[in-house]
Amino acid sequence: MSHSGEIALICVSKGRHTGIDVNHLGRTTGWKAVAKRTFSDAEQASFASYSESEQERIFYSVWSQKEAYTKAIGDGFSYGFQNITVAIDPGSRMGLVADDKCPGAIDGWQIFAIDAAPGCVAALAYDGVGKPSIRQWDFVA
């Protein structure tokens, strides 16, 4: 489960480890400092090459991927986000690039973008190959 503001995402699966995360753009004012503390060396180098206007969306994309993955493996933030490298793409490409604690993980884990709501970045991580059937429902109170 993940929530940001009025948006909540719940992931239910059968036979897979899964994790999900959602973040509103613009909700965290100190995202640059957080990126310095939590991005891997490879992510830091790539991140610095983008304009500041692109960096905010990239930050939330990287953060959502790491949150979803570490929730799926059962460790959360305590896993050490610096140990994980994910795809940095101003578009919507996501994926696990490296896991320093478990190098073989890149062959067994998938991370996809989820269309949660305008102004949000969300990611779904799961073990296994291929893209599972994803059903999404919107509930409005």
Descriptive notes:
The protein is an alpha+beta fold and 141 residues long. The protein has one domain: 4'-phosphopantetheinyl transferase domain (Ribosomal Protein L22, Chain A), CATH 3.90.470. 27% of the residues lie in helices and 24% in strands. It contains three helices and seven strands, in the order E-E-E-H-H-H-E-E-E-E. Strands 3-7-6 form a three-stranded antiparallel beta sheet. A two-stranded antiparallel ribbon has the order 1-2. A hairpin with a 5-residue loop joins strand 6 and strand 7.
Largest beta-sheet characterization: 3 strands, antiparallel
Tally of discrete structural domains: 1
Instruction: Please state the average pLDDT score.
Output: 88
Strand order of the largest sheet: 3-7-6
Structural class: alpha+beta
> Residue ranges: pLDDT <50 for 5 or more in a row?
none
Helix content: 25-40%
Superfamily (CATH H level) name: 4'-phosphopantetheinyl transferase domain
Count the strands?
Answer: 7
By DSSP (H or I, 4+ residues per run), the number of helices equals: 3
Order of helices and strands: EEEHHHEEEE
Broad shape:
globular
Q: What would CATH call the architecture? A: Alpha-Beta Complex
